[in-house]
Structure formats: C-alpha cells, structure tokens
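User: Please predict the structure of the protein below. I'd like the answer in structure-token form so I can feed it into my own downstream comparison script.

Assistant: Understood. Taking the following sequence of 329 residues as input:
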Amino acid sequence: MKSLVTGATGFLGSAVMRSLLSAGHEVRVLARPSSDRRNLADLPVEIAEGDLLNHASLKKAVNGCDNLFHVAADYRLWVPDPKTMHEINVNGTQALILAAAEAGLKRMVYTSSVATLGLFQDGTSATEETPSSIESMTGVYKRTKFIAEQLVKQLTDEHQLPLTIVNPSTPIGPRDIRPTPTGRIVIDTLQGRMPAYVNTGLNVAHVDDIAHGHLLAYEHGKPGERYILGGDNMTLLEILQTIDNITVKQTKRVNLPVNLMLPIAWTMEKIAALTHKEPRATLDSIRMAKKIMYFTSDKAKRELGYQYRPATEALKDAIVWFRENNYCN
C-alpha cells in the first residue's frame, strides 16, 4: 500500500507522513528540489521531485501509488504576488486530483482548512454545515482555499472520486520548521515579544492528532464528506497565559482594540514590500482577529473515531521543540 503525500517537508504534512509510516504505509513524498528537507531526514520515504506548479511532475508522482494525501498549500498571510498562491492552491490542486483520478488511485484525502467554513460571533462553535461564502473569506489564503475546496467537491461529484475532505483547525506542536504564523506566536511569547493581545479566539489542536485524523479519514471517511479536525477553543489571551504557565513566568499584557492594530499592520506591509520579508502583522491577520474562530470536531469524533489531547500538551511539545532547535535565541 503506497501513499503519496504532498507537503511532507512542511509542518502538518510531515506529521501526516509519520502517521502513515507508523500505520505501515509505504510513503512517497512530493518535494521541490529547493525545499528544506529536514522533516524527511532519516525516514524511509521515497522522494518524487516536483511541485504543484509543475503539472507534469504530478502525473509522475501519482504513478504507482494507491492513495493520495494532498496536504501541501501555500499558507501565508501576506504574499507579494497573490497569483502564485492561486496557481498553487487552486490550479495545482486541480491538476493533482485529476492526475490521481486518471491513475486510478483507490483513496484520496484532501486537506482543506477551517478557514473555508462559516463562523459565529457569539462564541458558538461552527460545524461543517455552518454557511460560508467567498465574500466572507478574508485574504488571499482563505479565498484560494475556499475556491480549491469547492473545486475538489465538484471534481469528486463529477468523477465519482473516492475522496474525503478534512478541515484542520490550528495545528501546534513539533517540527514547525518555517515556522507557521501560530508557531511564531509561540516563539514571540517565549521571547517576551507579546506584551499585548486582541480579543480573538482560535481552535487549537496537536499537529499529531490532526495528522492521525487524516489516517482516520482515509480509513473511515465517506467520499464527498468533510470533517473538522480540531481541538480546544481558546482565546488568544488564554493561549498566551498557558505558555506563561508552562514556562513558569508571569507577564502583564495590554488589551489592544483590533482597529488600533490596522495602521501598524499597514506600515509593516509597506516595509515588507521593500524588504521582501514577511511582516509580523498583516492587514488580513488583523481583520481575521475580529472574528472568533471556534469549531467543533463532533462529526469527526462520531464518524471517524477522532480524538484529541488537551491543547496544553500541544503547546508544551511546541515549546520543547522550538527550544531544542534554537528558535528562541
């Protein structure tokens, strides 16, 4: 049983790869020639060089595989050229799914995101059925993931594909080498660079639990269905205070109105346009902070047998890994 995993050099993809290896799968990974391959080191995986912009490489990558786990995505909250993100997240996904369909793969799991789902502003947890629309998507990343998910659903219906969609929430844990925007929050907190917070909320889950949820979706998921793979709902302040508790320190923080952050983010983006370095705060990230992003994984629990550990454990593991790998110097 050979499974192709995209995004395995990254954070969530590497966890999915490890989950599959533990379950006895042969694993082939799609990796760009220039990619950072630390997350592949010393693992018994076959590497197929290529990327989502090279559609010919996708056909070669799926050849001889039984299953596909498409985890890769361009996940950034600021990009100098939005067209590239669309090419990767939408067009690349379409080309990969069609290549897998043509090759006759037996099972496919597509990693979408809770970013595509609707939200409630009263703190109620959203579900897979909470209405959403392209107009409600904030930023290029969310819009491209929304379009890609709709496209995947269409392809699944038209071609009767054995494809299941998973919608991870906010993964935290080890091997976040880039790191992700959430990983940067952990690092900044450890370095004392989070003296303020805004009133927002996230659904936090251990990356390894979300990865195992991918395996459960492969084993038990229904074609055409989608499943939220999440964890605990936490306010940003609770996340920061949990990190303080784990590291045994106390920090007084100021609550900043979200609108007060907008001109700061605007300035950071203007600087980033000159330096080509991703800004610490972006207009999209601040606009997203106006929303309470709470979700429930009840459907995945009920239909897949999904379980997750407390978010505190995810934060502990992330802190240990970041410290051991010198991200906090």
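That's the full token string. The mean pLDDT is 94.
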